[in-house]
Amino acid sequence: MALELFILGLNHQTAPVEVRERLAFAEAEVVPALSQLKQGAPSIAEAALLSTCNRVELVAVSTESARAAEELRGFLALERRVEADAFESALYHLEGREAVRHLFRVGASLDSMVLGEPQILGQLKIAYAQAVRAGTLGMILHRTFHRAFSVAKRVRKGTLIGHGAVSVSSAAVSLAREIFDDLKDKTVMLLGAGQMAELTARQLVKLGVQSLLIVNRTFERAAALARELGGTAVTFENYKPYLKIADVLIGSVATARPLLGPEDIEPILRERRYRPMFLIDLGVPRNFHERLSTLENVYLYDIDDLGTAVTNSRAEREREAEKAEVFVAEEVEGFWRWLDGLELVPTIKDIRSNMDRLREIEFGRHRAWLATLQPDERGHIESLTRGISNKILHQVTTELRRANGFVDGVYAAEIARRLLGSDLPVEEAEPGDSGDFFDHDLDSGMPVTRGGRR
Amino acid sequence: MSTLWLAPALVLYVLAVFLFIADMVARQTRLNRYALMALGAGAISHTMDLVTRGLQAGNIPVGNFAQSLSFLAWIIALASLVLIVRFKMPAIGAFTAPAVVVALGAAYVLMPSEAHKLPSTLRSAWLPIHVTLAFFGEALFVLAASVSLVYLVHESRLKAKRSLGMIGGKLPSLEKLDRINYRLLGCGFVLLSLAMVTGAIWAANAWGRFWSWEPIECWTLVTWLLYAGLLESRLAAGWRGRRAATLTIAVFTVLVGSYLGVSLVYPGKHGGSFG
């Protein structure tokens, strides 16, 4: 095939953050950069740019992928004002099937730093929308992106890759939601304003917690954080009377021995009328005595409990990723069949056999009448109809051969096949799987193959 | 007497049980929708059975022990449908649907082949009112016990720090379970009280006495007092959570024991139908 799909990029595995940050594009820069690329790199037929904190990837279609890759390297160096040597070694250049596979894996969050994290799909959709706006997408990338979206959806639905907490703070938050129904009317108390405690508190506030008490040895730090998160700062000497209103207690104080034990909490529980208390101990040495967990309606989790949960769900995600890889492999094959089918020779073959088929159908319909004719009359009719179909075929073939080797060739072949061909070996598309984001037709005037002939 | 509707109802309920349990055990399924459908379809078939019997008997079909069990199963099924849909917690189904199956299964086995005619002294407008109130109250107690069981399962997982597994995510939060348990107990208690009042009025009409110290009446009084105590412990002492759940199940065990004991051993004037 004359047209090659390829990816030139780097990610968190190949490039350190110092390199990634120099090559990253801000959201507003992508469309102008792509427009620039369209003018400056004639060998590139289609292009899209995905730039996140973990990756910069150029997805492109070209007739001469080696030259195009060179142009893209130059483009990156020029656009970002970075000498090419600085990032050359971190770049990967994937072609054809490998490129498709890579894009599908990225969309399905199989290539992410945190496996299964959900943001990447949104970022990929934005990259697609930006390329649409810049007018740099054609038939092939349109379809590739839509396919990548539906692969991501399939992986998310069909596996548990997005399940389970992958950080200590999110594990703590998901436990809080198993204990409490509504967090809005709950009070969270931070005993010590350590970083992890702060992260957990932030997430809880995001989920609707309105009452937040912050206790810290350095009162200024408590006050600053309270201002930021909309809580109340309490001095360290003075926090005990507030314990009875605390539903979630997060401890991260540096202390030699536990700050709170059963003798502190038991009377409080009675005052609270046994409303549940969730104690999250992020401190080492531990802040809460482990015997607290024997108290009724008290749930105590220390840093190791939460850490184990995180390790487990990471392992779980890795197991699920194996399932996802199988889906991706299937989808790549399906997509590849379509892309492969865009080639010239199979297209001409297909159109020819379709013409023959149509002729046969017509002959079949008139079989009774044809039987009444003389053999030589039948022969005449036969050659007359073949003549017509050959003339059409010849014109189509000549035109396609002429266009072959040019960027337009493959598109012309696809259009010809769609107008005159028979059934395509297109991968079976689920109904509605491609229309869930944008449904643009091509700005470049190229037809979208989505749902083409089903 | 038999109708064509009872067996399909039982089969559908059994199917619902399997689907509910499979949904809870399997980690990523949408079986709960089908479980709910099976439960609903079972309830419809069951309703047809009760309507047919009701028309034959000319009154609410609780003439004998088997029929009253069937009626109870029906109310549990309806109430758990409401509970599941209203509070969006299919996990409850795995605990309530088996109760439906047990009750209806027993009813199916014990169902006598001849219709039981109520003696004319007992035929009265008070019958359906009294019976419906009593059975609704009991159904709510069944559900309260089921919800308490869910609470205990979930709570012990959280205590043992095993909750970050997958079942955890499918169970409702402890707070929600506790609140629902309380509401079910409250409503059940009100219905049981009303059932006792209407029963007394009916008894006064039929026998000229409000209260005749029948075994069933005594045991109902005992369970009524126990439920009153259960509610009181929450309101006054703030007993909730694990303690409340355990007590709910304990009191329910007394209720079931008295129901079976009285119905099978000392039928009395209630004729084997607890109500």
Please report the number of helical segments of chain A. Answer: 16
What overall form of chain B do the CA principal axes indicate?
globular
Number of domains of chain A: 3
Highest CATH level, the class of the largest domain in chain A: Alpha Beta
User: What Rg of chain A do the Cα atoms give?
Assistant: 32 Å
Q: What's the domain count of chain B? A: 2
The main pleated sheet of chain A reads as: 6 strands, parallel
Task: Tell me the distance between the termini of chain B.
Answer: 22 Å
Q: Compute the average pLDDT of chain A.
A: 85
Low-pLDDT windows of residues of chain A: 424-454
Task: Note the quaternary state here.
Answer: heterodimer
* Straight-line distance between termini of chain A: 24 Å
User: How do the SSEs of chain B run, as a string of H and E?
Assistant: HHHHHHHHH
Major sheet details of chain B: none
Total beta-strand segments of chain A: 10
CATH topology of the largest domain in chain A: Beta Polymerase, domain 2
Which descriptors apply to this entry?
heterodimer; A: 454 residues; alpha/beta; Beta Polymerase, domain 2; Rossmann fold; 6-stranded parallel β-sheet; 4-stranded antiparallel β-sheet; 16 helices; 10 strands; 53% helix; elongated; disordered C terminus; B: 275 residues; mainly alpha; 0% strand
Question: What does it look like?
Answer:
The complex is a heterodimer of chains A (454) and B (275). Chain A is of the alpha/beta class and 454 residues long. Chain A folds into three domains: 4-163, Glutamyl-tRNA reductase, N-terminal domain (Beta Polymerase, domain 2); 168-310, Rossmann fold; 341-420, no CATH class. Helix content of chain A is 53%, strand content 13%. Chain A has helices at residues 17-23, 27-40, 65-80, 85-88, 96-107, 119-134, 139-158, 168-179, 195-206, 219-229, 262-271, 303-340, 344-365, 367-371, 375-403, 407-420; strands at residues 4-11, 44-51, 55-62, 92-95, 187-191, 211-216, 232-235, 248-251, 277-281, 298-302. In chain A, the strands form two sheets. In chain A, strands 7-6-5-8-9-10 form a six-stranded parallel sheet. Chain A is elongated, with a radius of gyration of 32 Å. The two termini of chain A are 24 Å apart. The model of chain A is unreliable at 424-454 (pLDDT under 50). Chain B is an all-alpha fold and 275 residues long. Chain B folds into two domains: 1-114; 126-275, no CATH class. Chain B is globular. The model of chain B has no long low-confidence stretch (mean pLDDT 84). The chains are: A alpha/beta (454), B mainly alpha (275). Chain A binds chain B through residues 159-160, 163-165, 171, 174-175, 177-182, 270, 272-276, 293, 296-297, 299, 301, 305, 308-309, 312-313, and chain B through 27-28, 154, 158-159, 161, 163-166, 168-169, 171-176, 179, 237-243.
